[in-house]
Amino acid sequence: MREHMTLANTLNAAGFMLGLASTLVLFFSDQVAIGVLGVLLAVGVFVFVFVLRWRDRQPNITVLNHEKTLTLEDKDGDRATQHSEMKIRTNRNGVERLRLGAVKGDGPVKNIIVDPPPSYIEEILGFKEVYKIFRTPLGRGDERDIKVTLTYEDSYKDPEETWKHPIALKTKSLSAKIVFPNDRDCGHAWATVSFAGEVHEWPSGLVEISRNRLQATLKVPRPRLGAEYDLHWEW
Q1: Integer distance in angstroms from the first to the last C-alpha of the chain?
Q2: Spatial contact of 160 and 171, defined as CB atoms under 8 Å apart
Q3: CATH class of the domain at 61-234
Q4: Burial per residue of 79-99, b for 16 or more beta-carbon CB atoms within 10 angstroms, e otherwise
Q5: For burial by CB atoms within 10 Å, which of 30, 39, 96, 149 has the most?
Q6: Could you list the mean pLDDT of each consecutive 10-residue stretch along the chain, which spans 235 residues?
Q7: How distant, in Å, are the alpha carbons of 12, 143, 166, 197, 235 from that of 157?
Q8: Which residues in the chain are classed under CATH 2.60.40?
């Protein structure tokens, strides 16, 4: 449970300070008691200002966990289904919508479903911008589970392919798994991360390939905001 600065908390803190002042007066001189209270008050003000500034710097939403699965439905790459599950937490009051991402494939992208509804989609420069709408604005500390499914057509047909994962929201954990068809398994899989124009290969140990070579999974603890993590494979 997350606690926030409320009137009740403020009154409790004030009551504690008054009680402490009474106790100090009983055991120490007035000057010592005033001095101690002054130091405590200064520390309290510093902590209060620090917490307020920290809260102001927080993004509207934090993604606590994001799990994505891309299922290649056939050996020719004619159809692939992407399923995403994320748990979010709001850091401010009054959050009414959430941008879930921009979607684009080599071929058509169809059947975009956001659960729970409602949602809406905007077409911008060939990308489909997907938004989740909250019927009732969320308050600070609220948590929600959101699922998104969509279908790619003719988007993964080459011998070497890439599945991109840009990090547009503060995210604590990302998992991306590819499921291959039984008649065309994974030959090789690796990952790269790009940030500020620089591309680096991700440590190979963080890309796991199942024994039957029908699954490849990338796990990224605390992905960097603004970076893009790409899962590549040969099949």
Answers
A1: 46
A2: no
A3: mainly beta
A4: bbebbbbbbbbbbeeebeebe
A5: 149
A6: 50 60 59 60 50 55 98 97 98 96 96 97 95 97 98 97 96 98 97 93 83 96 95 97
A7: 64, 38, 22, 27, 10
A8: 61-234
